[in-house]
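Known limitations

Files may contain more than one protein. Parsers should not assume a single record per file. Below, a two-record file is shown to illustrate correct handling: read the sequence, read the token line, then continue until end of file.
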Amino acid sequence: MRIRIMSDGDEAALTELQTWLADTPGTADLPVEQVTGDGTTMSVLEAVDIVLGHFTDIGAFALAYATWRSTRNTGSDTASGAGGPTEGDGARTLTHGATTVDIGHLTPDELSALLHRLNGGDQQEQDGPGA
């Protein structure tokens, strides 16, 4: 299963997420590929593609993403004095096929359930990487 996490105009968030996944046990070996577009002076990081090849990859990614998001929101909350994510907070949009979803507010369990539904439930085990 291949998913795409969009930068949502916040390249720093996407870079932080990519580093977080690379440094987190369970997601460090996930294939992550940068997707760039044309900027005014150089390539702009628009998204990362992530391949979730096994049932356990979905759970590990969901936990790592939600943990990263909560640490990022905590930092934003302190700076702004408001609850929840701030405007411009990137790496919240997930796409898979024709489906686009804001995942920035999901718990690990909710994100894992969403990914399983997007992948066709138990079909994940049969399809393997890149499905």
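...continuing to the second record:
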Amino acid sequence: MAAEKKAFVLRIQAETLKELERWAQEEFRSVNGQIEFLLNDALRKHRKRTRNPADNDPPADAQA
């Protein structure tokens, strides 16, 4: 079963949109597909970082 997709309005700077359009074209994606790809990649990296937050903390005996 396919995941349900939700539509929403995105306000974005014109120059940022132009860059996204160029990048999406280079990777044979639509702008929407490129934005979705980038968001999913960022979320995946965020989940990986926050899965074990203690692993990212300096040791308790480390001095600043």
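Parsers that stop after the first record will miss the second one. For reference, the second record is described as follows. Residues 13 and 19 are 10 Å apart (CA to CA).
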